[in-house]
Amino acid sequence: MTPLNFGHSKAQRDFWHTLARRLISKEQTPFYICSIAPIEQALEELDTAFAGLPLKHWLSFKTQPLHPLIRWWQQQGRGVEVVSEFEFLSALQEKFSPQQILVNGPAKHHWLSRHAVRDISVNFDSVNEAKALLPLAKKLNWRIGIRINTREEFDSEAPEFPTHFGFLGDEAVSILKKLQREKVRLEMVHFHLRTNIGHAAVYQRALDEVSEICRAAKFSPKIINCGGGFPAPNVLNREGKPVNATFRLPEMRDVYQQLLKQFPTVDEIWLENGRWLSARSGVLVVKILDVKQRGDMRYLVCNGGRTMNAMISAWVQHEITSIPTRTGKTIATTVNGPTCMPFDHLTRRPLPASLRVGDHLLWHDAGAYHLSWETRFSHGLPSVFWHDGKQIKKVRERESFA
User: Fold this and answer.
1) Residue 157 has what pLDDT?
2) pTM above 0.85?
3) What is the C-alpha to C-alpha distance for residues 302 and 289, in angstroms, rounded to an integer?
4) Rg for the chain (alpha carbons), in Å?
5) Above 80 in pLDDT, residue 1?
6) Mind spelling out the 3-state secondary structure of the chain?
7) Largest Cα–Cα distance in the chain?
8) Long-range contacts, 78-83 (Cβ 8 Å, 24+)
9) What is the percentage of the chain residues whose pLDDT exceeds 70?
10) Which residue of 31, 120, 202, 367 has the fewest CB atoms within a 10 Å radius of its CB?
11) How far apart are CA 310 and CA 347, in angstroms?
């Protein structure tokens, strides 16, 4: 088995080890630590790369539904993208203004009609949804768009199949024409391709298709919502290659500059990059409980793992480091969680043979879709800690049996 190179700097590893060491002597593992510092850095990277462009960044609520992060984002005056009734109500409770709330997702006509909130932004996802919500959209002055399902959008696990979201080409043209006749506040078109987009050219092809649809519908949007999909740094695919190996922010800048030429009426470009912003902002800390040898494979049985804490490890590989730091000879190792499922393993790769019972492992880049996909399989939920740049605060208690 070949050792993997994730690309983290020593400073990045030291940052998380420093935070983890402050907790492991007094807190029961497993637990998550999340920090605002990497998100601030990610936003700075985007602001630098896209300086001068009319971009607006929306926080994808579902990616990291963590209260202090949501509150911090609201205090920055930025908007939040929601895809469910729970997220919508949370955004209202956190005092996001209606103009700061963007509603996406399928089948929302089954819940959004219960909430008469004026001036929100809504992307219709289907003909039935548009028909059901159109009276409210008019009455409440919603900023309306539609989600377009381009040829670049497909199921990553089964690329031969498109996703079930949004409108295909001809039906997108039809619904845009209808909405214009209805004199609704139609201002945008939206697409979201998938996660970990490999190259800027994918976005350009999608935008070319969106441009054709808008021309056919004689629709001139004020806003193009390009969704998310930027691949997170320091994360590898199943084959051990960086998911962002061919992705470059300067090339995305070229795409957005071309967008402004393709759509001369556009005032704003909206982005919803959840994973790229927040993946780097958290770690999962687990403890080795037992060690077993099975032929040439060593097994480390830990008190946290894939089934409970890191479902995303089924698709991508994240760096694992240890406290104390273990070096020397590496051997083929599987890091298992505590549940009774062979599926429950964080990784299978060469790790130091010196790792032992009682050591702590840090599973890095655990700031995206981990809290969202937690399970209580045989166990309760772990505690969560928040680092505001200076202090660490427990923001969720470990779930007890009671």
Assistant:
1) 83
2) yes
3) 5
4) 23
5) no
6) CCCCCCCCCHHHHHHHHHHHHHHHCCCCCCEEEEECHHHHHHHHHHHHHCCCCCEEEEEEHHHCCCHHHHHHHHHCCCEEEECCHHHHHHHHHCCCCHHHEEECCCCHHHCHHHCCCCCCEEEECCHHHHHHHHHHHHHCCCEEEEEECCCCCCECCECCCCCCCCECHHHHHHHHHHHHHCCCCEEEEECCCCCCCCCHHHHHHHHHHHHHHHHHHCCCCCEEECCCCCCCCCCECCCCCECCCCCCHHHHHHHHHHHHHHCCCCCEEEECCHHHHHHHHEEEEEEEEEEEEECCEEEEEECCCHHHHCHHHHCCECCEEEECCCCCCEEEEEEECCCCCCCCEEEEEEEECCCCCCCEEEECCCCCCCCCCCCCCCCCCCEEEEECCCCEEEEECCCCCC
7) 70
8) 81/272, 83/108
9) 100
10) 202
11) 11
Residue type, 305: G
Give, to the nearest 10 degrees, the angle between helix 169-181 and helix 200-217.
Answer: 50
Q: Which amino acid is at 7?
A: G
What CA–CA distances, in Å, run from 391 to 23, 226, 386? 12, 35, 8
